[in-house]
Amino acid sequence: FLVFVNASLFWFNKTEVPQEFFYYSWLIGKGHIIYKDFVQNHGPLLYYLFAPFSGDRSFTLILIKIFYTLVQSANLILILILIKKFSRITSFIIGGVTFIVLNFYFSFNYFWDEQIIATFYLLIYYLLNSKEFTLKSACIGILIGLAGLIKINALIIAIPVLFFYKKKSFLFSPILIWSIAML
């Protein structure tokens, strides 16, 4: 029910999308190379993700709205999973309702990089508190690398992960992701 209410709030209200998502994605779709042909102070991941859909602005806006609603729903689900893991059902309901209200009113239904970075951070936190499995450090590293490809300052999450995660092998994945992106 909470996920349905959250998705409805974001879907049935107007979503503000910065023009750069359309323009930079369109430039990339036309064959321009970010940081060579034009300057952008954020990472390239989202612009390359939206570039194949940049021909029709209204279609791109619908896809971004779907993507934005899915990201906001994923954030709520992750918050609810974490609340359930550490507290009782009353805290689950109160925490879920509080998150929905605060997230909706503080995000102003404005699609921006931080919502996606928050999803990656929540996934990293969830993985840090989950049982050990074979690809755990690789998954954490990939999430850190992807967050850094959205905004470079998102790589700062690696510092607390270094303190709280015993295996330092997670650092290989962000380095690999960034090396591929640089090539």
Word description of this protein:
- The protein is mainly α.
- The protein is built from 9 helices and no strands.
- It has helices at 2-11, 19-29, 45-50, 57-86, 89-107, 113-128, 136-150, 158-164, 172-182.
- The longest helix has 30 residues, at 57-86.
- The N and C termini lie far apart (45 Å).
- The model has no long low-confidence stretch (mean pLDDT 90).
Largest sheet: none
Question: Overall pLDDT, averaged?
Answer: 90
Strand proportion: under 5%
Radius of gyration: 18 Å
Helix content: 55-70%
Outline the low-pLDDT stretches.
none
Task: Give the H and E element order.
Answer: HHHHHHHHH
Structural class estimated from helices and strands:
mainly alpha
Brief characterization of the structure:
With 183 residues, the chain is mostly helical. The protein contains nine helices and no strands.
Question: Any key phrases for this structure?
Answer:
183 residues, mainly alpha, 68% helix, 0% strand
